[in-house]
Structure to design on (103 residues):
C-alpha cells in the first residue's frame, strides 16, 4: 500500500485576521497522480465568510497550477512551471498579495 506523510501544515492569519492561508504538503510514495512525490495544497480563505479566493494544488494531468478566478470560476486553472513545491508556495503568496491589493 502506498504511504504518505505530512511534512508541512500551517495556517497563517493575514490582513488583521481577514484572511487565512492554509498550507499543506504531503510526501507521497507510489502514487502516479503525484509524480514528483509531493501533494501540495495552498488555499486563501476569507476568515469571516469561508470564501475561497486562491487555490494552489498539484496533480496529474495538470501538474502544479493555481485557481485564480475563485470563487466565480472553480474550473479556471493557470499552470505554473516550478522546480519544487517551495517555489510553488512562493507563487501562491504572489497571488495572495494580488487579492489583498484588490480588496
Amino acid at each position: 500500500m502506498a504511504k504518505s506523510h505530512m511534512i508541512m501544515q500551517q495556517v497563517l492569519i493575514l490582513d488583521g485576521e481577514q484572511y487565512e492561508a492554509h498550507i499543506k504538503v504531503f510526501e507521497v510514495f507510489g502514487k502516479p497522480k503525484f509524480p514528483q512525490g509531493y501533494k501540495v495544497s495552498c488555499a486563501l480563505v476569507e476568515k469571516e465568510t469561508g470564501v475561497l479566493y486562491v487555490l494552489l494544488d498539484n496533480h496529474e494531468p495538470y501538474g502544479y497550477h493555481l485557481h485564480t478566478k475563485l470563487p466565480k470560476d472553480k474550473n479556471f486553472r493557470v499552470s505554473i512551471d516550478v522546480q519544487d513545491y517551495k517555489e510553488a508556495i512562493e507563487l501562491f503568496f504572489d497571488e495572495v498579495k494580488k487579492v489583498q491589493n484588490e480588496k
In short: The longest helix spans residues 85-102. The CA atoms of residues 8 and 88 lie 14 Å apart. The mean pLDDT is 92. The radius of gyration is 14 Å.
